[in-house]
Design a protein that fits this description.
Glyoxalase_6, 2,3-Dihydroxybiphenyl 1,2-Dioxygenase, domain 1, Glyas_Bleomycin-R_OHBP_Dase, 4-stranded mixed beta sheet, 8 strands
Amino acid sequence: MTHDTARPRIGRPTTVLDSPDARALARFYERLLGWDVIADEPDWAQLAEPGGPGRLSFQTEGAYERPQWPTRPGRPQMGMHLDLEVDDVERAAAHAEAVGAVLAPFQPQPDVRVCLDPAGHPFCLWARD
């Protein structure tokens, strides 16, 4: 593979979730994942996986509209979702609900749980066989 020497270094991407309240959504994911808060500003927050490369960021969006799950024509699309690998799907789903998630009414697969975070972003909990 050849590298273009004119290309600048581009670092590891982080996922950024929009919400009506960046700090509140970051606190939810802090409780869900057990990650560390590394940025906490009025309209921006970021979590980091302890000892790992993972980052998850949140920004306040004044015109935020909750995405729809499942997707429906003419409604805000989810655009993306998080897949979170867990040891036990049922225990992880119970934990997610205990910290503020809602189990989505539509579950497309029997071995995956789709949850909605407080801003309505879908995320999937799944375990390897």
